[in-house]
């Protein structure tokens, strides 16, 4: 097994991927498995480089100049005299002498500044900088014979370190990158950064563990199902106060095979809708290998087909009240299925290629990788398990559960129409689900798809937490009806509309900018260019706070809970949970973006100081 050549913290010269340019970098770490060095550039960008792409700084030290007896200028002068095609006139000789003196001065200036410009830039300077020789050539005058000296200087300065680039740029009237337009800077380097993504094929081990590491994730595997059970038992009580702890039901009452069969039927029905050859096929964001996966966008069609199927069942007088009566059993069935699915996902991930593993779920610890997800995009053929579960069974199931609670309220209280509170809760959450399905393509840019693996966290969240916890307000209203007036209902509706407007417009700005930054519709948006070739928006909603979509989410969550009144805090659990969840996500996003964008992210944070709540947090 080869030993590492460079130590952590050592300053070396690293080749920029896809080019011949070397820059000063610091060695951050070394992966024994992939034999890749993680290096950090001066702007904060971190990349994984092979040992062959790294050189010691000593190999870039300037070479000693040649002796005066064989100086380039002296050889150039003698060569020019012997090979000059004509000496007709003092003016011509004087002009040629002045040209040589001018060019020698230029060479001397280059040597004095110890240029470490990349070879391509040196060539550009020496070839395209206007000179008297070029002028002579165009006027039909003889060309200076210093071509060999030019190549000599190029070779002599090919690998010298870049110590005084600014002076050279000023000498040759070149613009620095800071003076270039932001969009030109991004697109001029687009190919280089596409190459950067393709070379990092083998992800390194996950070093920074979230959720409290192994102990924290083990506790969450036990705590999350217990929390769902606790919340549902509390809603069943006449007095759902926090101090009134519910009695635990008998274990045999929590399981019913028929209920589990209905859940499986629901899951595979949504899988059938997902596989229908309708809807457009789009590509996701590039993976670490440069590959782009294809996704079929037909979630809204699946929702329409599901609504038609439910309508047919109601027409034939199928009682959805069954879902309310066995709500606890359905939750347990979904939890059991998510556990089984998570075990399958982890076992199959053990045979997955290294480049297909999730960057955040490759720690080498069983419980941590089981929880966060070991494989990034597990697929059975073209069937993407993570993408399917993200929007289909749980999200559409949430609407079906809410509808079942509305019908249960009407049946229990003999109502000809549901209460105003129940109508508001169903309407607000239906809008949220329909919006997600209508804008299904936007989910492809979220961290759930691009960064997180598919393990217990997402499987349990998609199949259990979303349909059975997000519907908590509707379930609460069945056992604890709340009467609200029309003016109060109107005020709550305004609150929800404000939250939805912030949520949707912020996400639209981000998604449109990611897809096509050059879109004329986005010309009024300003951004900070980054070393990855992407831009950070500093106007619009993203110049207001760093995560305006989270702000809209929290306002909507509050509007969903307000129809339940203020008798108990239980309906507001979702608001409290959502704030904690988004604060955690925000902290994770901050850490991820700081590593990814380096100094550009620090500039963005100075420009936009508030994270979620303006003037507060």
The domain tally reads: 3
What percentage of amino acids are in beta strands?
Answer: 5-15%
Looking at the structure, what is the overall shape?
A: globular
Helix tally equals 24
**Span of the ends, CA to CA:** 50 Å
- Across the major sheet, the strand order is 4-3-2-1-5
Report the structural category: alpha+beta
Query: Could you tell me the mean pLDDT?
Result: 78
- Major sheet attributes: 5 strands, antiparallel
Multimerization status:
single chain
Structural write-up:
The chain is 54% helix and 7% strand. It has 617 residues and is α+β, with helices and mostly antiparallel strands. It folds into 3 domains: 10-57, SH3 type barrels; 211-482, no CATH class; 484-616, no CATH class. Strands 4-3-2-1-5 form a 5-stranded antiparallel β-sheet, with no helix packed on it. A two-stranded antiparallel ribbon has the order 6-7. Strands 8-9 form a two-stranded antiparallel ribbon. Helix 9 crosses helix 14, helix 9 (213-236) runs parallel beside helix 19 and helix 15 runs parallel beside helix 16. The longest helix is centred in the last third of the chain and has 30 residues, at 486-515. It is globular. The two termini are 50 Å apart.
